[in-house]
Design goal:
The protein is of the alpha+beta class. The chain contains three helices and eleven strands. A three-stranded antiparallel β-sheet has the order 1-3-2, with helices on one face. It has a two-stranded antiparallel ribbon with strand order 4-5. It has a two-stranded antiparallel sheet with strand order 6-7. β6 and β7 form a beta hairpin. The N and C termini lie far apart (87 Å). The model is unreliable at 155-200 (pLDDT under 50).
Length: 200
C-alpha cells in the first residue's frame, strides 16, 4: 500500500478522491484532491479503509474564500454510514513543512490552507517566482526595496581606488632587508635578517 505505483495504492487513492469529490463538489473553488501517501494507522490524518491513513491535499482555487475550518467541518458533516469516509478524522498539516519556499532566500508562513513566501533581509522577489527571492547583483546594494548602484563598487570609482592604492604603495618606503649567510662551523648556514629602516 505504501508503493504509490502499485495497483492497490491507485485503487484506494481513487476511492478516497471520489469520496472527497462528493463531499466538496458544492464548495466554491474546489479543484480536486490528491492522495500523496497511504500509511499504517500509527499516523493521525484522514483515515481511509480500516488501518490506513491517507495523507492528501484538498485543493481549492486561490480565489476561493473557503477557510481551513470550513474544510474540516464539511468533511466531518458529510461522512456517511458504511462508506469510505465513515468515522474519518481530518488533521491539517503545516504547508510550510514541505519547504515550498526557497529556504536560503525566504521564509514560509502558512495560514488557512495557503502559504506565502517572504523575502529575507536584503533580498527581493522577482517576476519569475513567488517562491524564492534574490540578492542584489555585484556592484549594487539593497535600498528601499530595490537594488541601487553602489558608488563604492562602480567601475570608474573602482579604477580610481586601484590607482590610489598603487600610489600609496609606492609612496611608502619599505625597510630594506639584507640576507647574510654565515657558516660558523655548521654544515648549514644560518640566516640573519638585518633591517635598515629609512622613512625620511
Amino acid at each position: 500500500m505504501t508503493n504509490t505505483t502499485s495497483k492497490e495504492f491507485k485503487e484506494t487513492a481513487d476511492e478516497i478522491v471520489a469520496a472527497l469529490d462528493e463531499v466538496y463538489k458544492g464548495q466554491d473553488g474546489y479543484s480536486g484532491s490528491i492522495v500523496l501517501k497511504l500509511l499504517p494507522s500509527a499516523s493521525r490524518m484522514l483515515r481511509a479503509p480500516p488501518g490506513i491513513i491517507a495523507v492528501l491535499q484538498i485543493i481549492f482555487k486561490a480565489s476561493s474564500e473557503i477557510k481551513e475550518d470550513d474544510v474540516i467541518k464539511e468533511l466531518e458533516n458529510n461522512t456517511c454510514d458504511n462508506c469510505l469516509l465513515s468515522g474519518a478524522t481530518f488533521e491539517p498539516t503545516d504547508l510550510c513543512a514541505e519547504n515550498p519556499c526557497d529556504v536560503k532566500t525566504s521564509n514560509c508562513t502558512s495560514q488557512d490552507g495557503a502559504y506565502s513566501c517572504t523575502c529575507l533581509e536584503k533580498h527581493f522577489q522577482t517576476d519569475f517566482s513567488d517562491r524564492m527571492c534574490t540578492a542584489c547583483p555585484s556592484g549594487s546594494r539593497f535600498k528601499d526595496n530595490t537594488c541601487v548602484k553602489d558608488e563604492l563598487y562602480s567601475d570608474q570609482n573602482n579604477t580610481n581606488s586601484q590607482a590610489q592604492r598603487q600610489n600609496n604603495l609606492y609612496a611608502v618606503k619599505r625597510p630594506q632587508i639584507k640576507l647574510h649567510a654565515q657558516s660558523q662551523g655548521y654544515d648549514n648556514p644560518y640566516y640573519q635578517y638585518d633591517s635598515e629602516s629609512d622613512f625620511s
